Request: fold
Amino acid sequence: MKFENLLNYLDMGVCVEQLQREALVDLVVLFIEIDGVIDDAELAYTRKWLKSLTWTSQMCTDTYLHDVSHKCKDAIKHDKVNDFILQRTQNIHDKPLQAEAIKLAQGVSLADGVLSPIEEQTIEFLKSCFDKATA
Reply:
C-alpha cells in the first residue's frame, strides 16, 4: 500500500510539473499574440526557450503551440485575457517558475524591440496575479 502511495505521489509530481510547464507555454503564447503582431523574433525567442523545457506531455510541443494559439486568440477576441491569465497562474505554484513566467512575458514582449501598451498592461496584471497568490 505504501509503495502504491509513493507511485501515485510521483505520478502527481510529474503531472503538476507538466501543468506548470504548460501554463508557462500558454502565457508565452498569449504574449506573442496579445499585440496583434507575430514577429519572427518573438517566435525565435519562444522556440529557443521551448528547447530548454522538459516536456512530458503525449502531445508534441508543436501541436500544443498550435492549440494554445487558438485559445489565446479566442481569449483576446472575447476580451477574456485576464481570465486566461488567472487560470494559468493558478497552475504555477513554484516561486522560481512564477518569476520565470514574468521574465518570459517580458522577454517575448520585448523580442520584437517594442513593448506595446497592451503588453505592458498585461505584464503588470500577470505580476499582480502572482503577488495576490503569495499574499
About this structure: Residues 2-134 form one domain. Confidence is low (pLDDT under 50) at residues 5-11.
